[in-house]
Amino acid sequence: MIEDLVSLSYEELSDFIKEQGEASYRAEQIFRNYASGFSLSEMTDIGKNLKEKLSLYENSAIEEVKKLIDRDGTEKYLFRLRDGNYIETVLMRYKHGNSVCISSQVGCRMGCRFCASTLKGKIRNLSAGEMLMQVSVVNRDNKVSNIVIMGVGEPLDNYDNLLRFLKNVNDPRGMNIGQRHISVSTCGLVDKIKALAEKKFQITLSVSLHAPDNETRNKLMPVNLKYGVEEVLDACRYYISRTGRRISFEYTLIKGVNDGVEQAETLGRKLKGMLCHVNLIPVNYVSERGLFPSDKKTIDAFRDKLLAMKINTTVRRTLGGEINASCGQLRYQQEEDERRERL
Question: CA–CA separation, 187 vs 286, rounded Å?
């Protein structure tokens, strides 16, 4: 039973269209239109009767509710899904091209203390089509060259739909975005990291580490109670050995929690000899969390210690500060506004 046209691979869509008694070229039109950000109702080369016939099977169309634009050019989209849930997507502009950061779930169950995405837990996974439409709708106005799956949700907790999305967005008959232009984030689901390693994709895997030791990471990330630091790092080494790809470690710097020079030294020792890069990120302040970013002097000292230990390290440039572009904040605000209106 077909649940969603937008999530189908090109081959699956072709088979389905033929089963409906339609010409095979219709599959090409529909697949291309979805990759261009158009839902059935917006497709100009598909007849009314066929649209009505297929509309029963289209469940990943998204509606733009709000768009915020920062003076640095960052754009944050709030999309409403067919079931009324909200997700966020962020366009970031760099010299090397435009990157779109997409969500993979409605909410998140990982419970990381510094993240707004987890405030209401996980509601459901996004379909591959809902992930694709985030990219393609943004791409209608801004040519997207890179995809970062680091928005709301844990991508590897939605593993099957993630794989389907990667296949579809890479298809040359659709968006044709190469794997080396795609980054997938994870908080460290060891079993899924190893499973992904076996696929030997050429994507970039970004692992949210945020602490070099179990004591600190346990306090920040409940997932560490299941998969400790050493187990996560071992899985990363396995991933590198199977794919030949460099791991990117995301490290959110939180004032007085994980930003000491001695913690940088511990991190450097544990990453020694690994094909990796450390991306330091001053934490985004979320009022419900009460955690504050490290100051510049502390950030620089942390970075310099890692560099002195020959660990490739950079500090991420902060984008979208004026529009709360970090994960989950706009969605949470929208839902709270609607709750207050109902009351």
Answer: 19
Quick one: average pLDDT of 107-129? Answer: 91
The percentage of the chain sitting over the pLDDT mark of 90, rounded to a whole number, equals 83
- C-alpha span between 298 and 254 (Å, rounded): 10
| Contact by Cβ (8 Å): 142, 98 | yes
Rg (CA), the chain: 21
Max Cα–Cα distance, the chain, nearest Å: 67
pLDDT band at 316 (very low <50, low <70, confident <90, very high): confident
Contact in structure between 235 and 228 (CB atoms under 8 Å): no
For the segment 60-116, what is each residue's pLDDT rounded down to a tens digit? Answer: 989 999 999 998 889 999 999 999 999 999 999 988 899 999 999 999 999 998 888
Structure tokens at 55: 């509309």
Q: Tell me the C-alpha distance between 69 and 92, whole Å.
A: 10
Q: Among 226, 288, 299, 200, which Cα is nearest to 259's? A: 299
Mean pLDDT of 309-332: 70
- CB of 193 closer than 8 Å to CB of 34: no
Q: What b/e sequence results for 157-170 when a residue is b if at least 16 CB atoms lie within 10 Å of its CB, and e otherwise?
A: bbbebbebbbebbb
Question: Which residues form the catalytic set?
Answer: 88, 327
Across 199-203, 212-216, 295-299, 320-324, least confident range: 320-324
Nearest alpha-carbon partner for 104 in 169, 139, 151: 151
Three-state secondary structure call for residue 151: coil
Residue 4 CA to residue 201 CA, distance in Å, equals 25
CA distance 76 to 281: 19
